[in-house]
Automatic annotation (TrEMBL):
Keywords of this entry: Membrane, Transmembrane, Transmembrane helix, Transport
Transmembrane spans: 48-71, 83-102, 108-125, 137-158, 170-193, 265-286, 306-324, 331-350, 370-391, 403-423, 435-454
UniProt cross-references to Pfam families, sorted A to Z: Sugar_tr
Protein name from the UniProt record: General substrate transporter
Species the sequence originates in: Ascobolus immersus RN42
Protein topology in the membrane: Multi-pass membrane protein
Molecular function (Gene Ontology), one example: carbohydrate:proton symporter activity
Subcellular location: Membrane
Domain Major facilitator superfamily (MFS) profile: 9-458
Family stated for the protein in its record: Belongs to the major facilitator superfamily. Sugar transporter (TC 2.A.1.1) family.
Stretches of the chain forming a coiled coil according to its record: none
Gene3D superfamilies referenced in this protein's UniProt entry, alphabetically: MFS general substrate transporter like domains (1.20.1250.20)
GO CC terms in record: membrane
Length: 520
């Protein structure tokens, strides 16, 4: 039963980031739609169309930062639901647009909504996971993003086949409207799923948190492990309250003033910035233009884009199941930080040759397309999945909501907005030479950062990650002959009486002489 509940939790909450993939991929089809351009009396290369692309990311920045308040105020689950409801409003405004100003307002509202969901979902999934499956569970964040891109690609291709498509508003209004369906599903379905156990501990609801862990992971023989986990989570939270400053200290302030929190926030931000600086969104947003540059246009380009999008979820799922919890995060990042710049160099060289031949060389065109497909595969095997997993797991509970908002808002969406503004201008001025910038950045900046700044988090619980940035502070546990557990507090704890650490409410448990006894 627990496995089905966990799968339902991953899929249902994952639709929150599915909206990210769908809305982000949608714009590439909308701004290339012939009727859309004619209806709004504009052209694809105009600055106003570029604004339609970038205001979405701007809305995401605002949404992510605002989500920092709501994640800790109403919870992880309710924040995702709030984002879904806001996205319904944004979708309606976009689908009903009669002017580009109205379209941009709708894009901002939807962006604000996606800022909520994209910030909350990886945190919610990470907090509902264990040390053994956290990469797989949190990896649903990236898997569902890629599924959103798949959906928008095929919806866009199908819409292009509508009779008299060049004179039919259905070809762009209908794909926009589709985004309301997963939003409605999330808003209702999450009511039947539990809140994050770590958020419940944060709110002092230890008993409810334990029950969530039992619902998700109890297999008939691991009650002791689950009670140990809830004990560890609660002790860690109590310690963070004491270590993190006075009760009146703002958690926004703690993100920057507590050294070990600041280190982890920097890692979370870098995980997002460096993911964006792989160049993946340049390909995502402007793949239609890139296909045209190699001689593939119209419906053939849409079909190829749809096929291209399907590579991502297959590869991402493979990385989820077989790689991230087995070989770890850093080896995957090393691979991506070397393989992706090499592919960009090859891509630039082939495009340069294609330009000289006037795109008449079919072999070069096929090679260019193949490189794009390999880029997608290698990205999903590295930064695609690891970036969001590290974002969800790296920060401590005390600042996870606020720190997540900063990392997603600044590290992901602000950089995303910058790239969406710069890319069309750079492509126009530099053409294939622009790809060398990404290659140089990944080899000279990203690779050293992975080696010297990032830490391997595989196999550690969220509460044990302190040991990577500070002196170990987590409790170890010794099994006693009668089946109880003796908590052995770590050395050098700040202001915590060892016996006081054991006096927490855990359902069905008894504390006697420092022993934590599981209920029968």
């Amino acid at each position: 039963m627990g496995q089905f509940l966990l799968l339902g939790l991953c899929v249902t909450s994952g639709f929150g980031v599915f909206l990210h993939g769908y809305n982000s991929g949608l714009v590439a089809h909308v701004i290339a739609n012939e009727h859309f351009l004619r209806f709004f009396d504009t052209k694809q290369s105009s600055s106003i169309v570029a604004a339609v692309v970038s205001v979405f990311a701007g809305g995401c920045v605002l949404g992510s930062l605002c989500a920092g308040f709501f994640l800790d105020l109403i919870g992880r689950k309710r924040t995702i639901q709030a984002g879904a409801i806001i996205n319904i409003v944004g979708t309606v405004v976009q689908a009903a647009s009669v002017g580009l100003t109205m379209m941009m307002i709708g894009r901002i509202i939807s962006g604000f909504a996606i800022g909520f969901t994209q910030t909350a979902v990886p945190i919610y999934l990470a907090e509902c996971s264990t040390r053994k499956n956290r990469g797989f569970v949190t990896g649903w964040s990236q898997l569902m993003v890629t599924m959103g891109f798949v959906a928008t690609s095929w919806v866009g291709y199908a819409s292009s086949k509508v009779p008299n498509a060049a004179h039919n508003a259905f070809t762009w209004r209908f794909p926009i409207s589709i985004a309301a369906i997963p939003s409605i599903f999330i808003a209702f379905a999450l009511n039947w799923l539990p809140e994050s156990p770590r958020y419940l501990v944060r709110k002092g609801m230890t008993e409810q948190a334990y029950r969530v862990l039992v619902r998700l992971y109890y297999d008939g023989s691991n009650r002791l492990d689950l009670q140990r986990d809830i004990h560890q989570i609660t002790i860690k939270w109590n310690r963070e309250i004491l270590e993190g400053g006075a009760d009146g200290d703002s958690e926004w302030k703690l993100c920057f003033t507590v050294p070990k929190y600041r280190k982890r926030l920097i890692v979370a931000i870098l995980s997002q910035v460096l993911t964006q600086c792989t160049g993946i969104n340049m390909i995502t947003y402007y793949q239609g233009d890139m296909f045209e540059n190699v001689g593939i246009k119209d419906s053939k380009g849409l079909l190829l884009g749809a096929i291209y999008s399907m590579v991502a979820p297959v590869t991402c799922f493979f990385a989820q199941v077989f790689l991230i919890d087995r070989i770890g995060r850093k080896p995957m990042l090393y691979f991506g930080s070397v393989a992706l710049p090499i592919l960009f160099i090859v891509f630039a060289a082939v495009m340069a040759s294609n330009e000289k031949s006037g795109y008449e060389d079919g072999a070069l065109t096929k090679l260019n397309i193949a490189v794009m497909f390999f880029f997608n595969v290698f990205f999903q095997l590295s930064w695609g999945i690891v970036g969001w997993v590290m974002y969800g797991e790296v920060m401590p509970l005390r600042i996870r909501g606020k720190g997540g908002a900063i990392a997603a808002g600044v590290g992901n969406w602000a950089v995303n907005c910058l790239i969406s503004q710069v890319t069309p201008l750079a492509m126009e001025k530099l053409s294939w030479k622009y790809y060398f910038f990404y290659s140089a950045f990944m080899l000279c900046v990203t690779l050293p950062t992975v080696h010297y700044v990032f830490k391997e988090t595989k196999g550690l619980s969220l509460e044990e990650l302190d040991s990577l940035w500070d002196a170990p502070t987590n409790d170890s546990f010794q099994s006693l002959e009668d089946g109880s557990v003796n908590a052995v507090p770590g050395k050098g704890e700040v202001g915590l009486d060892p016996q006081a650490q054991l006096e927490m409410v855990v359902p069905g448990s008894r504390y006697q002489r420092g022993r934590f006894r599981p209920g029968r």
